[in-house]
Amino acid sequence: MVRETLTFFEEVLRRDLSVTNFIDSDFVMVNEPLANFYGIEMPRVDGRLDKFDFRRVPLPEDSPRGGLFGQAGVHMRGSDGIRTKPVNRGVYVREVLFNDPPPANAGEVEPNIEGERLTVRERLIQHQKIEACASCHCGIDAYGLAPENFNVTGAWRLRQNGENFRGDKTPLIDASGQLPNGKSFASVAEFKQRLLGQKGRFHRALVEKLFLYALGRPTTPNDRGAIKEVAARLAKGKDTLREAIKGLVATKEFRTK
C-alpha cells in the first residue's frame, strides 16, 4: 500500500501527467494482490511481470478509486486500526493538498464508550456543539467525512463497521457534507469534483511545497510573487510537475538561493 502511493507519484512525474490526478484519476498503480483487494480486474500481461510488480491499470467508470483518495494507504493513515478518524483525514486534505494545516489543537473525536452505539458522524456532531471545538472543526470535518465509505483498511463499505458495528442492519454510511466554501457533496465522487473546482488553490499549494523542497527553507512573504507566477504558469499551460519545476528553477528566488 505504501508502494502504491510512491509508484503513483512516479507515474504522474515520468508521464508528465496533470497534477490533478492526485485529486482524482482514471487509473491506479497496483499489483495483483492490491487489485484483488480493490476488486479490480488486472489486464493480462506477458510473463516478464511478476504478480507483485506494480503497473498502471485503468479504472471502471463506477470505481470509487482514483487519486490519493482511492488509495488504501492514505485511508489507513486516517484510522487507528479499529475506527476511522475523520479529523485526521480532514487534516490530511488541508495539509497535503492545500498546504493549509488547521490549528494544531484540533482534536479527534472520542471512541464509542460502553453502552453507546454512535457513528463517527454522530459523535462529530456532538463534538461540534462544544463551543471551544466548533470553530476548528467546521473547517475540517467535511473533508474527513467525505471518505467515510473507506474503512480502516481502505476497503470500500456501504455500512458502518468496526467499533462493534456488525451485520446487515448497521447504519448506512453518510458521506455527504458541505465544504467551508459552501459547496455541498453527497458522495466521495462529488467531493473530489468539488476539490477539482479549487484547482487554483491546489496549484498554489503544490508550488509552495516545491519551493520549500527546492530552497530548503520555509517560504516567506517575499516569495509570494514568484509562487503566484509559477502557479499562474500551471493554470495557463500544462499543469504538470515538470512544468512547475521548470517555472521554479527560472525564478530569481531559486537562482540566488
Structure report:
This protein folds into three domains: 2-70, no CATH class; 78-196, no CATH class; 199-255. The chain is mainly alpha-helical and 257 residues long. The chain has twelve helices and four strands. Helix 9 crosses helix 10 (224-236) and helix 10 (224-236) packs antiparallel against helix 11 (241-249). The mean pLDDT is 88.
| DSSP summary: helix tally | 12
Mean of pLDDT: 88
Q: Report low-confidence residues grouped into runs of 5 or more.
A: none
Helix content: 40-55%
Rg result: 20 Å
> What profile does the largest beta sheet have?
2 strands, antiparallel
Shape: globular
Chain-wise SSE layout:
Elements: H1 2-14, E1 27-30, H2 32-38, E2 55-58, H3 72-77, H4 86-97, H5 120-128, H6 131-137, H7 141-145, E3 177-178, E4 184-185, H8 188-196, H9 199-215, H10 224-236, H11 241-249, H12 252-255
Antiparallel strand pairs: 1-2, 3-4
Helix pairs in contact: 9-10, 10-11
Keywords, separated by commas or semicolons:
257 residues; mainly alpha; 3 domains; two-stranded antiparallel sheet; 12 helices; 5% strand
